[in-house]
Design a protein that fits this description.
Helix content: 25-40%
Strand content: 15-25%
Largest sheet: 3 strands, mixed
């Protein structure tokens, strides 16, 4: 599941006219790999695309990734609360950066 995390940031310096509002449009995409492993596909206007490409085209500029230090038991079964080990997290971060999103 992908969650929208929008914040409004106001600059705190400059005159009233110089102040501007910047809206950050961000998503937590920590479960992307799990969903893709289960067969999830993503479409925009009927065209299949990489989820990060879709997010960027829709204005997302910030990605949150969670890292689980020990996502698997001794038999390599996930505990069920998330499966992002360091390799998965790095891969997702690279995919986000490829589409000019901040982490």
């Amino acid at each position: 599941m992908i969650y929208l995390l929008s914040d409004i940031i106001f600059t705190s310096h400059g005159s009233h006219e110089e102040r501007r509002m910047h809206v950050i449009k961000g998503m937590d995409v920590s479960f992307t790999r799990e969903l893709e492993d289960l067969g999830a596909e993503y479409f925009l206007n009927g065209e299949k695309k990489d989820v990060f490409e879709i997010l960027r085209e829709c204005g997302t500029d910030l990605i949150r990734l969670r890292l689980w230090m020990n996502p698997y038991d001794e038999d390599m079964r996930p505990y069920g609360g998330g499966m992002n080990d360091i390799a998965t997290t790095i891969d997702l971060a690279r995919r986000a950066r490829k589409h000019q999103m901040n982490i």
